[in-house]
Amino acid sequence: MDIIFYDKNIEILQSESIKKHIKKICETVACVIKINNLLVPIDKEKFVENNIRSNYEIVAKMNPVKTIYYNALDKYLGKPSEQLKEYLRSIGSVALSEYGIVYLSNKSARDIIFHSFNSLKAYGVGAIKEVLENGKAIYYKSKYDKKSDRLVIAAPINISGKLHKGKFMMGVAVEVYPASNRATLIELAIEKEPYGLLSSKMTTRRSDSPSILTLLQQVIDVKNGNLSLDQVTAIGIDS
To answer: Where do the DSSP E strands lie in the chain?
Structure first.
């Protein structure tokens, strides 16, 4: 490692080995933070309904947060659930969204596989962290079930792989446990643009539990000018 002095400034030229060592130290610190739950996971003040409705327009205008060229699970051996566990570990098992820390646990892998896993989702796995860290909340439901709340974060992605190509809207569902102030990824869904599977015009009536695909279709319809913000089935904590 070379150190160059410029008056009061110091420039440090790092070798590749030093960079790898620093990266390892940073990952260790992040792991300690994660294990000890030192970061508050979820900032609920950002989930008022008006904010969530505004997020539909923000996501509709957002540039893709990632372009995916291959199935990220192909490099791992075993059943899909084991492959996904290994992949989540490889990206640090945690994502820092603007709302707080989201854990990418073994339970996350099991839940994602349980919810009808397919080749499109396998490609989408490669954008999980980017969607969580750059996307916006399009749904928040307190007391979704007895013990947890439900959060959905969405962002556009591109896929340029052998099996799938084009522009997609991706959503990731997060289970929030108020008692422990912990949030865990539990599902992902992808809807192809520009039209998706079904226009959301027939499903704009408010629902206590719209599917992720329905929410994503509404983002696409907002983007295409087929749906106004006051028609989306956004649910926030002031509902």
So the answer is: 2-6, 9-13, 67-68, 94-97, 100-103, 136-141, 149-160, 165-177, 182-192
Scan for tokens 């609920």, then name that residue.
44
The Cα 215–Cα 84 span in angstroms is 25
Going residue by residue through the chain (239 aa), what tens digit of pLDDT does each one get?
A: 455 544 555 555 556 777 667 666 666 555 555 545 444 567 788 899 999 999 999 999 999 999 999 999 999 999 999 999 999 999 999 999 999 899 999 999 999 999 889 999 999 999 999 999 999 999 999 888 888 999 999 999 999 988 889 999 999 999 998 888 889 999 999 999 876 555 555 454 445 678 899 999 999 999 999 899 988 888 888 65
HEC sequence for 144-203: CCCCCEEEEEEEEEEEECCCCEEEEEEEEEEEEECCCCEEEEEEEEEEECCCCCCCHHHH
Cα–Cα dist 28/11, whole Å = 25
pTM of the predicted model over 0.90: no
**Cα Rg for the chain, rounded, in angstroms?**
20
Of the candidates 51, 57, 60, 47, which has an alpha carbon nearest to the alpha carbon of residue 150? 47
Rounded to 5°, the CA angle 123-129-131 comes to 80
CA distances 191 to 8, 50, 84, 212, Å, are 53, 24, 21, 9
User: What is the C-alpha separation between 137 and 172, in angstroms, rounded?
Assistant: 10
Terminal C-alpha separation, the chain: 57
